[in-house]
Structure formats: C-alpha cells, structure tokens
Specification:
The complex is a heterodimer of chains A (231) and B (168). Chain A is α+β, with helices and mostly antiparallel strands. Chain A is 30% helix and 22% strand. In chain A, the strands form two sheets. In chain A, strands 1, 3, 5, 6, 8, 9 and 10 form a seven-stranded mixed β-sheet that branches. Chain A has a three-stranded antiparallel β-sheet with strand order 2-4-7, with no helix packed on it. The chains are: A alpha+beta (231), B mainly alpha (168).
C-alpha cells in the first residue's frame, strides 16, 4: 500500500456517516442542478468531505453530471469540464514543435526504426534539454506490438505524481492522462491504435507546486501483431 | 419529445447511473450494478409522466436520475460487500490494521483542522478520491491553484503527522 493509499484509507475509515448534517434528497437535487446559493453550497461541500457516505453519493453524482449533458440537452453542463491553464494549452503546441524538431534533428543520425534496410536501430530515446529529477520512461520503447500497450516508468524521486503524454508522428498531442501516482498506465481506450511512430513522455508534478518536470521524449513504433502472436 | 425518444433517454440514463454507482461500489461493482441498472430502469420508467409530458422532459428525467443515483448509492451502504465493510476488508481484516488506520485517520482529521480553509478543503477532497479536475469544478479554482493547494496542503499535513509521530 502506497503512502497516499494509506492516508486515503485512514481518512475514509474515520469519515463515518453521521445522521446529522446529511443533505436531504431535495438538497442533493439542488446541488446536482447547481441551484444552491454560495453559503449552502459551501456548507454542503464541507459536510460531504467529512462524511464518507456523502462523498460516495457526491462522486456518483459527478459522474452523472459529467456525462448526462452529452446525450440529454436538458441536463446541466458541468461548470468546469476541463479548465486547463493557458500554459497547458500553449504547452502542446510547444511540445509538438519540439517533437517535430527532434524528429528532423535525429532522423539523419541513422536509419529510422522501421525503415527498410535498417540493421542498427537508432536509440529510441530522444534527449530532451531538461535533465535532472525527472521520471524515466521504461516501456514502450522501440518496436512495440499493437493490442495491449502499457506505459510504464520509473517515477521522479522528488515528484510522485505523473502525467503521461502521447504524441503521434505528426507531433500532435493525442492524449494526456489523468494525474496518477501509479507507475504504469494502459493505452487509453478512446485513442485508436494504428501502426506508426509515436512519442511519449512523463510529466512529474512536484509536491511543492513548482510546476512540471518533463522526462525524456521516447519514441516507439507501433506494429501489427505478428500472425503467430496470441490474440 | 416522443415516447420512443423518452424510452431511449431512460435507457441511456440507466446505463449512466450504473457507471456512476460503479465508481463507488468497490470490488463487487459488476454484480451489484447489474441489479442497480435494472432497478433504475424500472424506477425511471415509473417516473415517466402519464399522458401529460412535462415542458422539459429531459431536465425532468435528469432530476429523476439524480434521485435514483442517490438512492442506489445509499442502498449500497446496506450491503456487506461495500462501504465501510469493504474498507475494513482492504485492511486485510486485521484488527490491528483497523485500529492503526483509525488512529492515523484521527490524526489526519485533527491535523487538517489546523491548516487553512482552502488547503484543508483541497487535501480533504484529494484524500477522499476526487481528481484535480473535480476539485477545480467543486471550488471554482483554476488548475494551478488547485494543484498548489493540494501540494502545499499535503506538505502541511505530512509535517503535522510527522510532529505527531506518524512517520513512514
């Protein structure tokens, strides 16, 4: 059990439900529809965060609210579906440009991973300019068979929270993972796999809130599974 | 909205509520959520108005879905597989582990009461299992404010736990 799991378990087992302060059905409905005034809303949140039963209810209602508006025009739209900072929106552009530059710079150094006649594959790890206390991508690197692709890395010693970014061969950021304290994450189910080159890296988020440390950018070539491979 | 559209909406909501309940149902989610989906489908169907369709049937059904989600999650608390029982099972059913977790939990809550309101809320939400996007939405914080409050609040919490003798 990791430290954060231990803290979360301990936090939850002491958040016993108390009959007093529970939200009524009407209050839950108002909360889910964004109809509580500021004071009532904050009081409700304070109770929810201190009560494990109400936390469960609230987290379920968040799932409902996050998705209902996608098929029901009468459902409220979440106030923040995604509110990344300006820096985060600028970042993919910079990353895409950097990826393109790295491709241009490094490809002439040797044959590409998939290029015909290649006998000495290039080092798939493309050095980023920022070195130091960063995560270390472990897998996938180089030639990788499609199907179950799992990103795994060794975390930064100083920043256990990680975000994985996946970039396609055009330098387009195709996926950014949720923040995780794990050291592996599956290929996202909503990103279709197609043969070709991809790049990925890990952003490590420091506890001190001092920004993100990017790992090396790692290249891998997604290939069709060989006919002899098990399904 | 015709009846066919309404039926389709009900089915979409019953599947969504199943997913919503699965988030908190723990390891028995698959078995429990089959039942939940069926119950919700019936309940939403029964909530369908008679001959008089409301002016905004979709918002009407959303509110009904909120109530059914609420009732389904409350219903989970009465099963032995989830809720506090599951938390205890996570602790390998060892009495010592439960006692230790309760002591640590008490220290966490005492420590949280000693830090600033925003950091306390951020850390409480983080420990309760909300992700950053949800915390941003709950408190209307921009991304970096949410991240910083969590990080600094967690640092505060660790210092206070260290001072109370709860070291890793």
């Amino acid at each position: 059990m990791t430290e954060i799991e231990r803290l979360r378990t301990a936090f939850k087992v002491t958040g016993a439900s108390e009959p007093e302060g529970h939200l009524s059905e009407q209050q839950w409905e108002s909360l889910a529809c964004g109809e509580l005034d500021r004071g009532d809303y904050e009081a409700a949140l304070d109770h929810i965060l201190g009560c494990s039963q109400c936390t469960d209810i609230h987290q379920s209602l968040l799932v409902l609210k996050e998705h209902a508006h996608t098929f029901d025009s009468g459902a409220p739209v979440p106030s923040v579906i995604s509110k990344p900072s300006r820096r985060r929106w600028v970042f993919p552009g910079i990353l895409a440009a950097a990826a393109m530059l790295l491709v241009i710079v490094f490809r002439p150094l040797g044959p590409g991973l998939n290029e015909p006649g290649s006998s000495t594959p290039i080092d798939p790890i493309l050095r980023s300019p920022q070195m130091g206390q960063t995560a270390t991508p472990l897998s996938p690197v180089g030639r990788t068979s499609m199907s179950k692709v799992v990103f795994s890395w060794s975390p930064s010693p100083t920043a256990p929270v990680s975000i994985v970014q996946l970039i396609d061969d055009d330098g387009e950021l195709v996926w950014t993972s949720q923040e995780t304290e794990s050291t592996s994450i599956d290929w996202p189910i909503d990103v279709a796999q197609s043969p070709g080159r991809y790049y990925w890296r890990v952003l490590s988020l420091g506890e001190a809130g001092d920004g993100e440390q990017a790992s090396d950018l790692v290249a891998f070539d997604l290939t069709e599974p060989s006919p002899s491979s098990p399904p | 909205m015709n009846e066919e559209d309404f039926v389709q909406l009900v089915r979409q909501y019953s599947r969504l509520i199943r997913s919503a309940v699965a988030r908190v149902a723990g390891p028995s989610a698959d078995r429990i959520c089959d039942d939940v989906e069926q119950k919700v489908l019936i309940a939403l169907w029964q909530a369908m108005p008679g001959e008089q369709m409301p002016d905004h049937p979709s918002s009407y059904i959303y509110r009904a879905a909120v109530r059914e989600t609420l009732r389904s999650v409350r219903g989970l608390e009465h099963t032995s597989e989830v809720g506090m029982e599951a938390d205890r099972a996570d602790l390998s059913a060892l009495p010592d582990a439960i006692v230790e977790a309760k002591e640590l939990g008490g220290a966490i809550r005492t420590s949280l009461s000693e830090i600033g309101a925003d950091r306390r809320r951020a850390v409480s939400a983080h420990l309760a299992g909300y992700d950053v996007k949800e915390i941003m939405a709950m408190f209307d914080w921009p991304y970096h404010k949410a991240r910083n409050l969590i990080a600094r609040g967690m640092a505060d919490l660790r210092r206070k736990l260290d001072a109370r003798g709860y070291r890793d």
